[in-house]
Amino acid sequence: MLEGNADPLDAAVRSLARLIGSTPGPVRRARLQHGDLVVEVEWPEGPAGVAAAVPAPPLVEADAGLHYVCAPMVATLYLAPSPGADPFVSEGDQVVPGQQVAILEAMKMMIPVEADRAGEVVKVLVPNATPVEYGERLIALAVSEG
């Protein structure tokens, strides 16, 4: 759905970015068509024809009680909405489910990263403007009870 006088192609790209960001696993292929313009992207497959996925490392004793916000795709992580702006979250901040905590850039598309649990930001694990892999831990949360 278009917002205001938004460019239809821009709106379509943003919708595709949200769709890619909300998929539970790595995206293998994406196609966007607007009139005569077609953009198609295909990522390589992993071994044995299965799309590659990087599993989250197993929790260890030191991780007890922590939850991790992980990268939903391969992209570049930004911790603030624009250069020089305050970060979305800092260590010690309280977050709620659905709150934006970072943003990913992939192929000039910006995909918001949202907290999926309520809690306190214990540590931001990845520096700003850093390439990240699918499933990589980005932010550690101490999960709130109740």
Mean residue pLDDT: 79
**β-strand number:** 10
Assign the structural class, choosing from mainly alpha, mainly beta, alpha/beta, alpha+beta, or little secondary structure. Answer: mainly beta
Helix content percent band = 10-25%
Q: Uncertain segments of ≥5 residues (pLDDT<50)?
A: 48-61
Give the overall shape. Answer: elongated
Main beta-sheet strand count, sense and barrel state: 4 strands, antiparallel
Terminal CA distance = 35 Å
Computed CA radius of gyration, to the nearest angstrom: 17 Å
- What strand order characterises the main sheet? 3-10-8-5
Order of helices and strands: HEEEEEEEEEE
In DSSP terms (H or I, runs of 4 or more residues), the helix count works out at: 1
Strand content: 35-45%
List keywords for this structure.
single chain; 146 residues; 1 helix; 10% helix; elongated
Polypeptide structure, described:
With 146 residues, the protein is mainly beta. Helices cover 10% and strands 36% of the residues. The protein has one helix and ten strands. The protein has one helix spanning 8-22; strands at residues 29-34, 37-42, 66-70, 75-78, 94-95, 100-106, 109-114, 119-124, 130-132, 137-143. The protein has a four-stranded antiparallel sheet with strand order 3-10-8-5, with no helix packed on it. It has a four-stranded antiparallel sheet with strand order 7-6-4-9. It has a two-stranded antiparallel ribbon with strand order 1-2. The longest helix is centred in the first third of the chain and has 15 residues, at 8-22. The protein is elongated and about 50 Å long.
